[in-house]
Amino acid sequence: MTGPATGPATEDPPGGRRAVAVWCIGVAVYFVAVIFRTSLGVAGLEAADRFHVNASALSTFSLLQLLVYAGMQVPVGLMVDRLGTKRVLTLGAVLFTAGQVGFALSPTYGTALAARALLGCGDAMTFISVLRLGTRWFPARRGPLMAQLAGLVGMAGNLVSTLVLAPVLHGFGWVPAFAGSAAAGLLVLVPLVLFLRDHPEGHEPAPAAPAAGGAGFVRSRIRDSWREPGTRLGLWVHFTTQFPAMVFLLLWGMPFLVEAQGLQRTTAAGLLTLVVASNMGFGLVYGQIIGRRQAARIPLALGTVGLTAALWGSVLAYPGQRAPMWLLAALCVVLGTCGPASMIGFDFARPANPPERQGTASGITNMGGFLASMTTLLAVGVLLDATGDDYRIAFSSVFAVELLGLAQILRLRGAALGREREREHHRARGAAADGGPAAARAAAACAQGRPTG
After folding, report:
1. Quick check: is 212 in a domain?
2. Which of 22, 71, 208, 440 lies most in the core, judged by the most C-beta atoms within 10 Å?
3. Burial tier of 404 (Cβ tally within 10 Å: 0-12, 13-18, 19+)
4. Does 3 reside within a domain?
5. Is the dihedral of CA 394, 396, 398, 403 positive or negative?
C-alpha cells in the first residue's frame, strides 16, 4: 500500500471492482449512442417513404452523420485530453439524445438532416471518452482487451436496433419508435452525472502546460501525434477494416437483402443480427489474441480484409440474381470480424503516444473507419441511382476502398513496428538500470502486452 499521492502517478492504475463500475457507466453511454447511430439502418426504407427521397438522398442521412462524427474526432480527442472524460461524455449524451428526438419529430428532409448531424456530434464524443476511461482506470496490459470489450458493447447496441427498434417501428410507427428510444439517453445521464470519475485517486494526469489551450499548443499536439508512424498506421488499419460492416449495418444491408436478394424483412433482420452476434464473439477472441501476442495484430488485420473481400466477391459474382442463404450467412459472419479488427488500430496508436496525447491519437485513429464508411455510403447511393439499383455494381466500390487502405497499411507497417521495438528496447534498458534484470524482463513483457505474473 502507498500513501496519498502528492502529484500525478506514474504507475499503472490498479483496476478492480470500482474501475469496472466506472467503466460500465461510460460504456452504457456509448451503448445508447450506437443504438441511435444505427437506428436508421433498420428504417432506411421507411425513411425513404417518409421523406420522399431517392437512394442518393437517403445515403446523405448517414453520410452527414458520419461526416460530423469523423470531423469531430480530433477536436473531441483534444477536449478529452483537456477537459476530462466526464464533461465530454455528458455533453455527448445531451447532444445525441436531442438529435434522436429531433429526428423522430422532423417534418421535413432538411430538419431530419440537421437532427442526424446533431446526433453525430454527440455520438462522436463517446468512444474516445470510453477508451480514455480504459487507460485511466486499468493497467496498460489490459488496454487491448478493454478496447475490444468497448467495441463489443457498441455492437450490442446495434443488436438492440435490430431486435427491438425494428419491431417497434413496424408495429407502432416512426414517432413512437424514435422518440421512445430517446428515453434511453436520459436514463444513462443520471449515473454519468452522479457517479462517473475521470480517474482513480492517486492517478491524476500530469498538469497541463501553462500555454495549453492556445492554437499553437493544439497544432503541436495534433502534429506530434500525426508524426508517429503508429498513429498513422492505426488510422489506416481502422480505415480498411471497419467500413464494410459499418456500411452494411448503418444503411445498405437491409435494402440489399430485401430488394436485391428478395428476402423477407424478418429474414434480413436476422442476418443483420448475425453480423452483430459474430462481431461480439470475435471481439472477445481478437482481444485475447492481441493481449497475449502483439505480433498478431498485422496478420489479423490483413486476414480480416482479405476474407471480407473474398466473401463480398463471392456474393456479388454468384451466378444468377440471388446468392444462396448459406453464402449470405457466411458473408454476415465474416462482416462480424470487421469491428474487432478495427480496434487493432488503437493498439498501434496507443503505445506510440504518451498519456497526455492519448485522446488526440485515438481521435485521429477513429477518423479512419468513418471516412471510409462515408466514402462508401455515398458511392453506393450514387451508383444505385446511376445504374437503376444494380447492387452488384454499387457494392463493388467496397473493393476500391479496401485496396487504398491495404496499400497504406503495407507502406506504414515497417516504420511503425520499428519505432515500437525501439521504445520497448529503451524501456527495458531503463527498467534494468532502475531495478535489475527482473525489472527489465517485466518491462519487456508489459511492452509486448503480456501478463507479468
Report:
1. no
2. 22
3. middle
4. no
5. negative
User: What's the pLDDT score for residue 450?
Assistant: 38
Task: Let me know if residue 50 belongs to a domain.
Answer: yes
Q: What is the DSSP string of 300-336?
A: HHHHHHHHHHHHHHHHHTSSSSS--HHHHHHHHHHHT
- Contact call for residues 399 and 405 (beta carbons, < 8 A): no
Q: 3-state class of 425 per DSSP?
A: helix
Q: 98 with 117: CB under 8 angstroms?
A: no
- What the block records as the C-alpha cell of 146 is 478493454
- Say if residue 59 is exposed, middle or buried (CB neighbours under 10 Å; 0-12, 13-18, 19+): buried
pTM over 0.85: no
Domain range for residue 365? 17-198+218-447
CA distance 175 to 106: 9
445-448: long-range contacts at Cβ-Cβ below 8 A with a sequence spacing of 24 or more? 446/140, 446/141, 447/351, 447/423, 448/294, 448/424
Asked if 94 and 176 touch (Cβ cutoff 8 Å), the reply is: no
- CA distances 156 to 114, 262, 311, Å, are 26, 27, 24
The residue type at 28:
A
Q: Assess whether pLDDT exceeds 80 at residue 335.
A: yes
pLDDT tens digits along 238-262: 999 999 999 998 889 989 999 999 9
Q: Provide CB contacts within 8 A for 289, sequence distance 6+.
A: 296, 300
Dist CA 361 CA 347 (whole Å): 11
Cβ 286 vs Cβ 237: under 8 Å: no
- What pLDDT, in 10s, does the model give residues 51-87? 998 888 888 888 888 889 888 988 998 898 888 899 9
Domain count, the chain: 1
Distance CA 303, CA 135 (A): 27
Q: Who's near 248: CB < 8 A, 6+ residues apart? A: 256, 272, 275, 335
All 3 cell numbers of residue 370? 468513418
- Taking the CA atoms of residue 188, residue 190, residue 193 and residue 199 in that order, the dihedral angle to the nearest 10 degrees is -60
Is 256 in contact with 391 (CB distance < 8 Å)? yes
Cα angle: 438, vertex 346, 363; to 5 degrees: 130
Q: At 293, which helix (H) or strand (E)?
A: none
CATH code assigned at 283: 1.20.1250.20
